[in-house]
Amino acid sequence: MYLLDASAIINLIKNKKLEAFENASTTDLALYECLNAVWKEAFMLKRLKEETALKLAGSIAKIFSSIEAYSITGFEGEALNLALKEGITFYDAVYLYIAIRNGFTLVTDDEKLKDIASKYIKAMRSAEVP
């Protein structure tokens, strides 16, 4: 089973690798990060038209309704400890902690997170997902 972070989700959608979501899960945090990335592309970077951004947001919502999203509730201290130990953001530590706790392969396009995660579990880029 794969645990996808927001960077992987966005890139899998961009590359139309929707079959990758069949054996995947994520965190509840990822929805907010994905939608923020769409907002950034549309509003700040002007790379997406508003209509396209709204369609993309709808596609993201559909994906999130079909995959399991794990919550960090009850494990906040463990995730924060991991963040402090590894020098990563709490957001990244949430993905890593949930992947470790459940024995999942972490899929991320964040090289720093991938390298750190590889010390604990299997980690890969979204392009490597079959």
UniProtKB/TrEMBL annotation:
CDD domains: PIN_Pae0151-like. It holds the Pfam family PIN. Keywords: Magnesium. InterPro entries: PIN-like_dom_sf, PIN_dom, PIN_Pae0151-like, TypeII_TA_RNase_PINc/VapC. Residues 2-117 form the PIN domain. This is Type II toxin-antitoxin system VapC family toxin.
